[in-house]
Amino acid sequence: MDLYEHEAKQLLDEAGIPTPRAIYAQNSHDVALAVEEIGLPCVIKAQVKIGHRGQAGGVKLVHTRDEAILASEQLLPMTIHGHKVSGVLVAEAKNILHEYYISIAIDRNSRDFDVLATANGGTEVEEIAKEHPEAVKRLHISPLEDFNIDAARAMAQQIGFYHADEEQAAQILLKMWQVFKDNDATLVEINPLAKIGDPDDDASKSLCALDAKITLDDNAAYRHDGWQQFVDPYAANELETRAKQLGLHYVKLAGEVGIIGNGAGLVMSSLDAVAGAAKQQGSDIKPANFLDIGGGASAQVMKQSMEIVLSDPKVRVVFINVYGGITSCKEVATGILQSLDEITAIRPIVVRFDGNAAAEGLSILQSANNPQINVAQTMEEAAQCAVRIALESGERA
Ligand code: GDP
Ligand code: MN
Q1: Is pTM beyond 0.85 here?
Q2: 12 C-alpha to ligand 1 centroid (Å)
C-alpha cells in the first residue's frame, strides 16, 4: 500500500526526521486556517499517490492567504495522471540551497535492502540515473548485520554528501532505516532531502525532508492493526473496500465473467480457464473480477460474496469454482441459494464443485430447480459454459 505524502511525513516526524511544519486540508476554508497556523510563504501540495506532482502543476508556492485559497481551489478538484486529488498539504516554504535524494527499498535480487542516493538531486532519480549514472550511488544494507550510526556515517560519506551535511545525513539515514523496519515498508524515499536555510548564515543551514514516499508491505498489515489509519477512500474501489471489511479478497477487472473461488491458486486457475475457453471459442470475453472466499467459508460469506460480485453491472455470468477442503460445498450451495432469493439483479451462474461435500452441494443446487443455475463437472467445462453464456447475453443486450 502506498501512502500519501502527508501520511508518509507523519511516519518521518515520529522517527525524528526533520520535515517542514504542515497541515493537511480538504477544503479551501481549512486551507485558510492552515495558512494562519503555518505562516507565509507556504507551499500548497496536491495529495495524490503518484510522483511528478511538481511537473504536473500539483505543487504551488504562495505568498498570501488569498493565493493559498486560490491554489487550493485549483488543486482540490484536480485529477493528476488518473489519480483524484484527496486533499492538499499546506507546508511551510523552505529556502532550498541544495537537493539530495535518498531511498531505501527491498532488493529482491540481492535479497537485502537497496539504498539509492544521489548528492545531485532535484529532478526525478530515474532522469539523473540516465544522464549522470555516476552520480547515483547504489549501496546495500544487509538484513544479517546491524545498521548502526558508524555504518550510516560511512554510507553518507560514500554517497557524497557535502562534508558539512555528512553527520546529519548519517542520522537521517539511520532514522529512515528505523522507519523502514518499524513499519514493515518496502520503500522509504525522501526526494528532495533538501539543504535549507539562509545562504549567508552557515549556522542556519540544515537538512530537511521536503517530500516523502512510503510503500508499506500489505502482507504485514496484520501486525499493524490492518493500517486502519491509512485506509484510502479515494484509491480503493468501493466494492474492494466492502469486501475487505468482510475479510474477503476482491479484485475488479475489466471483463464480463464474475469469478468466485476458494484459495488464491484455484482463483488464478479459474481466471486462466476463462481466458482459455474464450480463446477456444474465438471471443474476447474476459473475467470481470475475482473474489476469494478463503477457507472454511459459511453460507453467509458465500451470500455476501455473491452480492459483491453481482454489484458490478458489467458481470453477465458468475463462475463459482470451489474445491471443498475446510470449506464445505454444502455451505457454499446454501449460500448460493440464499443469494438467489435475495438479490434482485441476479444473473446466470455456473458452478463447479469438487472435494468436501461436493455431491451434497450439487444436489442442493439441483433440487432448487432454478434455471439460472448451471452445473459443470470440471473447471474447463464450467469455464466454457460461463464464456458461452457471457457471449450470448452480450449479443442479446
Ligand atoms: P513531486 O513533484 O511529486 O516529487 O513533489 P515535491 O514535493 O518533491 O515538490 C516538487 C518540487 O517543488 C521540489 O523538488 C522543490 O523544488 C519544490 N518545492 C517543494 N517544497 C518546497 C519548498 O518548501 N520551498 C521551495 N522553494 N520549493 C519547494
Ligand atoms: Mn518529490
Answers
A1: no
A2: 17
